[in-house]
Amino acid sequence: MTPLAHPPATHLLYLHGFRSSPHSMKAVKMAQRIQRDHPGVTWWCPHLPPSPRESFDAIRQGIAHWPREHMAVVGSSLGGFYATRVALETGCRAVLLNPAVDPARDLARYIGEQTSWHNPDERFFFRPEYVDELRALACGPLPQPERVLAVIAKGDEVLDWREMVGRYPGVRLKLLEGSDHALSDFDQLIDEVIAHLQLI
């Protein structure tokens, strides 16, 4: 058996996307797998507020006492943007699922009242200052790209797969010929995601 390249992860953070929640399909499937196969792992999937600054403050506070060498992060879409920042600040392993590359640009057109995907009765207001908060969280290339797995779908109807690939040079890349933004075929991908995280 090949020894692990890195210490096993005991703590896993999952970050959902814009208008999404911990009830997203991928978050739920990940939670179920962790509970079933890795019950010793500390799992945290916070419900992120609309404000990027408040979201990242909550993330930083939540992982402040996590062991850096034994933690990992998974992020989807806007959560992938946040996860990139987490990986930069902590050096942890990361999986990015169709990550948002320039959300300040892309979400500027969503200023105003929005609804949650998983609960249409849940409404929130995306404020103009949130665009500036996203700009403030942007970061450059990751110093340890080999610790990152990017799962990118050419069939993503929301984000440009070429831009996503170009944003993450040197990472482990899983490029899907089809699929979609939500990664509806996540059942076929989850084993590779779990393997990359090297969970206890």
Quick overview:
The chain has helices at 25-37, 52-62, 78-90, 103-106, 129-137, 161-167, 190-197, and strands at 11-15, 42-44, 71-76, 93-97, 112-115, 123-126, 148-153, 172-176. By secondary structure, the protein is of the alpha/beta class. It has a single domain (11-197), classed as Alpha/Beta hydrolase fold, catalytic domain (Rossmann fold).
The CATH level-2 architecture is identified as 3-Layer(aba) Sandwich
Report how far apart the termini are.
15 Å
User: Strands of the largest sheet, in order across it?
Assistant: 2-1-3-4-7-8
Number of strands: 8
CATH topology term: Rossmann fold
Largest sheet: 6 strands, parallel
Q: Strand content of the residues, in percent?
A: 15-25%
Per CATH, the class reads Alpha Beta
- Spell the H/E element sequence: EHEHEHEHEEHEHEH
Shape: globular
Identify low-pLDDT runs: none
Radius of gyration: 16 Å
Mean pLDDT: 94
Number of domains: 1
What share of residues is helical? Answer: 25-40%
Number of helices: 7
Determine the CATH superfamily.
Answer: Alpha/Beta hydrolase fold, catalytic domain
Furnish the topology, listing elements before pairings.
Layout: E1 11-15, H1 25-37, E2 42-44, H2 52-62, E3 71-76, H3 78-90, E4 93-97, H4 103-106, E5 112-115, E6 123-126, H5 129-137, E7 148-153, H6 161-167, E8 172-176, H7 190-197
Can you give a write-up of this model?
This protein is of the alpha/beta class and 200 residues long. It has one domain (11-197): Rossmann fold (3-Layer(aba) Sandwich). The chain contains seven helices and eight strands.
